[in-house]
Amino acid sequence: MISTKGRYALRVMIDLAEQNSDNFIPLKDIAARQNISKKYLEIIVKELVSNHLLVGASGKGGGYKLCRAPEDYSVGEILEIMEGSLATVACLAKDSDKCPNSSSCKTLPMWAEYDKLTHDFFNSKKLTELIEKK
Amino acid sequence: MISTKGRYALRVMIDLAEQNSDNFIPLKDIAARQNISKKYLEIIVKELVSNHLLVGASGKGGGYKLCRAPEDYSVGEILEIMEGSLATVACLAKDSDKCPNSSSCKTLPMWAEYDKLTHDFFNSKKLTELIEKK
DNA sequence: CATTTGCCTATCATTTTGATAGGCTTTTAT
DNA sequence: ATAAAAGCCTATCAAAATGATAGGCAAATG
Lengths: 134, 134
Hints:
In chain A, 51% of the residues lie in helices and 6% in strands. Chain A has 134 residues and is mostly helical. The first copy, chain A, has a domain at 4-86 and 126-132: Winged helix-like DNA-binding domain superfamily/Winged helix DNA-binding domain (Arc Repressor Mutant, subunit A, Orthogonal Bundle), CATH 1.10.10. The longest helix of chain A is centred in the last third of the chain and has 17 residues, at 108-124. The interface between A and B is medium-sized, with 29 and 29 residues. Chain A binds a DNA duplex (30 and 30 nucleotides) through helix 3.
């Protein structure tokens, strides 16, 4: 289940892409448009900046903007950052220890198959596809 | 993320299918084989029975067994019962109120697409496929 | 140099997750 | 009958995740 953090992050990215501006967009404006508390968005946006999906600028005239073209963002990378991992089961998460039963686990191949399906789906889904699909 | 309840339920179903017996299998035995606390399994198994995926019998010689052929169970129905819903986002869960923004939501079509992918994957995956794939 | 904006830290309530435990009831083989 | 084997019901619990809210400090620019 995708949490609000992931979904809000996506909405922020879409919002910024739609502004289609070279200026920095104040978080206050995004929060107002998206109807999400600015304070909560700060947490989310900070992560997006530290993972180089956004650039932030302080001061008057500051705010946030994309640092790539919208078509160069995949939904997958946005969600992966906010959710930590898109893995379906714990033993497939990137930082998990290898499960001791993995060699005999009857369900692991299925989870791996589904995991690939998920990653392929979200990684091939570009931000631009969400904008046109108004 | 699939929780332990869903994963344990699947393991119980696989275990029972593998016994390939017409007798009732005691939960104690399943718990021992699967290395899961019997008490915890009771919770899980109860739900499987009330949703008609298993039949239980009390008394000496009692236990649980499948009530259909293994090929007639889909992984999807097992997970759906244990996880409540396989929906990726809350607004796609079966009992959720329709989101007021759904008509203008830019991400909803994507979630719906992924949801279909997920359901198709797990509903077409049969219990038998997990048994052969040792 | 005041304004606008981001940044950092703390706190919070609620829900979900992952169990454990005790004791009661039901069934049935002997 | 009755003991043994099994399920059933209720309560409780700790820990983590979720979804926020709030205050004040720091930085930058017109």
